[in-house]
Amino acid sequence: MRLGELVKNIVAINSWQYAILALGVSVCLIGALLMVVGESVLGENHSGIAALVGIVGIGIIGSFTTTLRRAKTKRREA
């Protein structure tokens, strides 16, 4: 594999990783927004749904860090 191809692969991996991070942060912010103004959208019992959305966002962010570590170890091995 040539150096240029390797750099393109690393850039592509980083782009996907940061897209996952952005998705996780966005989902967490949606959960926080539902906590604040969710009563008008979801009714009285909105806190459970908002908490679930926030937890899913935190899980997505957690998968970002795992993916980032895995990619770093692959780069070290190569």
Task: Spell out the key features of this protein.
mainly alpha; single chain; 78 residues
Brief rundown of the structure:
This protein is mainly alpha-helical. The chain is 91% helix and 0% strand. The protein has helices at 3-42, 47-77.
Protein model, in words:
The chain has 78 residues and is mainly alpha-helical. The chain has one domain. 91% of the residues lie in helices and 0% in strands. The chain has two helices and no strands. The model has no long low-confidence stretch (mean pLDDT 81).
Q: How is the topology of this model organized?
A:
Elements: H1 3-42, H2 47-77
Helix pairs in contact: 1-2
Helix % is over 70%
In terms of quaternary structure, the protein is single chain
Could you give the order of the helices and strands?
HH
Large-scale geometry: elongated
Low-confidence stretches: none
Assess the beta-strand content as a share of residues. under 5%
Terminal-residue CA separation: 11 Å
Structural class comes to mainly alpha
Number of strands: 0
Largest sheet: none
Q: Rg, please?
A: 18 Å
Number of domains: 1
Please work out how many helical segments DSSP would assign. Answer: 2
Mean pLDDT: 81
